[in-house]
Design brief:
Elements lengths: L17 E5 L2 E7 L4 H12 L1 E3 L10 H5 L8 H4 L6 E8 L4 E5 L4 H7 L7 E12 L3 E9 L2 H14 L4 E8 L31 E11 L5 H12 L9 E7 H5 L2 H11 L9 E6 L3 H12 L8 E7 L16 E7 L12 H17 L4 E3 L7 H8 L3 H11 L25
Antiparallel strand pairs: 1-2, 2-6, 3-6, 4-5, 4-6, 7-9, 7-10, 8-9, 8-12, 11-13, 11-14, 12-13
């Protein structure tokens, strides 16, 4: 993370937590070291408000996720977390503490959002809020064909029917870590494989949806709304699962995964995760070669795949995404026990590299999310036509390359260096 350097634990910074109303809209000022989980609990319990965009796992710091993007099932509607902040306080590589926004120190504001920590340390953020719902209808439906799954997922994110849209790949077997048992939402629910068509391949696809509602909403109205929306979809009949949970329970759903992983020892094992953005135009090819072949036995954890809309991402930010109007996030979230129970981490890293090599050799339109390259040349390819801007921002705000050296983008120097655009 920081070879011959320091790693800062930002959670020690005092939380400035303050609710603001600006031109009739609510915001919250929070520390860059605040955990999203704590922001959620305090906003909801004290004010009935909540941020609009989340990550699936909330025990992450505000500054940390804003330095990447912050993606979850609300991103199709509101954009990533980087699109839901209006002001930052940043300590730059020069040692300056600057307040920045779209109109004040704007280059630092846009650069720090998704900037991988290369330009400064985010010490405060002003986050957009909205009224928090009371309850969530949480739904999972299963598909045997990727094309049908993709058509339904894409239509849902374009029409804003649900408040949350995600999805994942599962192995077409009774494997507890990778297969049918991963789909049901409640302990009393059972996955009946007799509903699966005989034409199904080695993997299936699960569309995960959520609809917010208030305690005052009549249950029959919620049922009618959900049934009307699901009636348009082409999932396998008989493989629908749903539960009603509080808004807080839904957003903290991954907490149970964390507790289970800590109980069985996989939480502290190496996690060779891989996160990609893949263009809509190439996602079927990716499914054919990666999901159905390379990953047909699963990854001992979730394989997320769901569409996002390009127009919800601000191109002035440092995050790099595919050029197409719609692209998919693909996340291989391995929870593999260490040897001798599980494979060596090196084998899983090799599998990740095989997937990246496939995407590169077939000229797929893709970008790594949470990128990590070993050479400056690979970073230049990653940023493409945004590299010159990224390098110029580095020269302006961290000319001695003090920050985030572990990513190996820039070499530390005793003198400021002009940006390289070669």
């Amino acid at each position: 993370m920081a070879e011959q350097g320091l790693v800062l634990d930002m959670r020690a910074i005092q939380d400035p937590f303050e609710i603001l109303w600006i031109e009739g809209s609510p915001y919250v000022d929070v520390s860059g070291g605040a955990l999203w989980e704590d922001v959620l609990k305090r906003c909801v319990s004290e004010f009935g408000l909540a941020p609009r965009s989340w990550t699936d796992y909330l025990s992450l710091t505000v500054g940390g996720t804003l330095s990447y993007a912050g993606v979850s099932g609300q991103t199709f509607r509101y954009g990533p977390q980087t699109s839901n902040v209006t002001e930052l306080e940043v300590v730059t590589g020069k040692g300056d503490t600057l307040c920045c926004s779209q109109t004040e120190n704007s280059e630092l504001f846009f650069g720090a959002l998704g900037g991988l920590g290369q330009f400064g340390i985010i010490t405060r953020a002003r986050v957009v809020l909205q009224e928090a719902p009371d309850m969530v209808r949480w739904i999972r439906v299963v598909y045997s064909e990727f094309e049908e799954y993709a058509r339904d997922a894409e239509s849902l994110v374009e029409e804003y029917c649900f408040d949350y849209v995600e999805g994942f790949v599962l192995v077409n077997s009774d494997n507890r870590a990778n297969g049918w048992p991963t789909v049901p939402l409640g302990p009393e629910q059972v996955f009946d494989p007799t509903h699966i068509p005989f034409t199904a391949g080695p993997v299936l696809y699960c569309l995960e949806l959520a609809l917010h509602y208030r305690n005052a909403d009549h249950p029959s109205r919620v049922d009618t709304d959900v049934d009307g929306l699901l009636g348009r979809l082409r999932f396998i009949q008989g493989l629908k699962f749903q539960v009603d949970v509080t808004y807080m329970e839904f957003l903290l759903r991954v907490k149970r995964v964390e507790e289970h992983a800590k109980g069985n020892g996989t939480w502290d094992a190496p996690h060779p995760w891989l996160n990609l953005f893949v263009s809509k135009s190439h996602i079927v090819d990716f499914d054919r070669e990666v999901f159905k072949k390379i990953l047909k036995d699963g990854v001992d954890g979730p394989i997320l795949v769901y569409p996002l809309l390009r127009n919800k991402w601000d191109s002035r930010h440092s995050v790099v995404v595919p050029d197409s109007d719609m692209f998919y996030i693909v996340a291989l979230l391995r929870f593999t026990p260490p040897p001798p129970k599980g494979p060596a981490a090196e084998l899983l890293v090799a599998q990740n590299n095989e997937i990246i090599e496939f995407c590169t050799s077939r000229s797929l339109d893709f970008k790594l999310y949470f990128p990590h390259y070993q050479s400056r040349e690979d970073w230049i390819k990653h940023f493409g036509n945004q590299w010159a801007r990224f390098a110029e921002r580095k020269a302006n705000f961290d000319p001695m390359a003090i920050l985030a050296p572990g990513q190996k983008i820039f070499s530390r120097t005793s003198q400021p260096q002009p940006p390289s655009i070669t």
